[in-house]
């Protein structure tokens, strides 16, 4: 098992990509701390893991709040003694993304990873190292119409990843980020209500001919969390089905 007996925290793990990462980590032997601000979906992720024979516990922490982020990290240490892996995945509500709520986007998607990372780094230093995986987005790499606040926050996550990786390489703490393309999760439900064909309309943007699944991102996170990625830090892993490779529909 690639994460046997590792202690991993996944924020925003009640649904979508975060849920898939938490489950995948547990399948590979990690003891997973599932964070979400929604008790119902957070505990559901824990139940899925434990029903399959894994180990997990739920913590309700709002990572946009420094004290809550510290509670999440310190509570994990109180229970398990250390933290080996942190995945910063939490985002604000789909409504806040679509309405360009700058405060919500920046506080959760950018300040949240900063709060959690700052709290966990002393623990990882004491333990001799660790891995932090930040979930960014292709929105932080290319211009996409409309959701400016979300895109700015995810661009900030990329910069934060690189800056912190440089600062903490000496501590054997690897800090990387993943930039997913379109991944079909629950966050698409409001958009599908407005346009039931939206996913079919954007699929041709992708050279692989499909949009992503949460497990696609979970597998990338698993690699970065594991010892297989021991020489990877400060890297931006683009998992986007070829979206950012170029315009494959350019007429010739």
Task: Using brief descriptors, characterize the structure shown.
252 residues; alpha/beta; Rossmann fold; 7-stranded parallel β-sheet; 9 helices; 46% helix; 14% strand
Task: Record the SSE blueprint.
Layout: E1 7-10, H1 16-27, E2 31-35, H2 39-51, E3 55-59, H3 66-80, E4 85-88, H4 94-98, H5 102-127, E5 130-135, H6 148-168, E6 173-180, H7 189-194, H8 198-202, H9 214-225, E7 236-239
Parallel strand pairs: 1-2, 1-4, 2-3, 4-5, 5-6, 6-7
Helix pairs in contact: 1-2, 1-9, 3-5, 5-6
Whole-Å distance between the termini? 48 Å
Query: What is the count of helical runs?
Result: 9
CATH topology: Rossmann fold
Low-confidence stretches: none
Strand % is 5-15%
Helix/strand-derived class? Answer: alpha/beta
Order of helices and strands: EHEHEHEHHEHEHHHE
CATH architecture: 3-Layer(aba) Sandwich
Number of strands: 7
Radius of gyration, taken over Cα atoms and rounded to an integer in Å: 17 Å
Helix content: 40-55%
Give the CATH level 1 class: Alpha Beta
Q: Looking across the biggest beta sheet, what order are the strands in? A: 3-2-1-4-5-6-7
């Amino acid at each position: 098992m690639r994460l046997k007996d590792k202690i991993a925290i996944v924020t925003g793990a009640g649904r979508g990509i975060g849920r898939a990462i938490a489950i995948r980590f547990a399948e590979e032997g990690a003891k997973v701390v599932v964070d979400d601000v929604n008790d119902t979906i957070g505990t559901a992720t824990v139940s899925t893991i434990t029903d399959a024979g894994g180990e997990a516990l739920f913590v309700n922490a709002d990572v946009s709040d420094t004290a809550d982020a510290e509670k999440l990290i310190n509570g994990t240490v109180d229970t398990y003694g250390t933290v080996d892996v942190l995945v910063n995945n939490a985002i604000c509500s789909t409504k806040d993304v679509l309405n360009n709520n700058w405060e919500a986007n920046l506080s959760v998607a950018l300040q949240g990873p900063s709060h959690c990372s700052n709290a966990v780094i002393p623990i990882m230093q004491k333990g001799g190292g660790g891995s932090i995986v930040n979930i960014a987005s292709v929105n932080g790499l290319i211009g996409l119409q409309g959701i400016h606040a979300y895109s700015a926050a995810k661009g900030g996550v990329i910069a934060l990843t690189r800056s912190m990786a440089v600062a903490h390489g000496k501590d054997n703490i690897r800090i990387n980020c993943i930039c997913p393309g379109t991944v079909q999760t629950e966050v698409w439900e409001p958009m599908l209500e407005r346009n039931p064909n939206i996913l079919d309309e954007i699929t041709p943007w992708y050279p692989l001919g499909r949009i992503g699944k949460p497990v696609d991102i979970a597998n990338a996170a698993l690699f970065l969390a594991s010892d297989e990625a021991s020489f990877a830090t400060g890297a931006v892993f683009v998992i986007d089905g070829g979206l950012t490779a170029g315009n494959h529909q350019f007429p010739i």
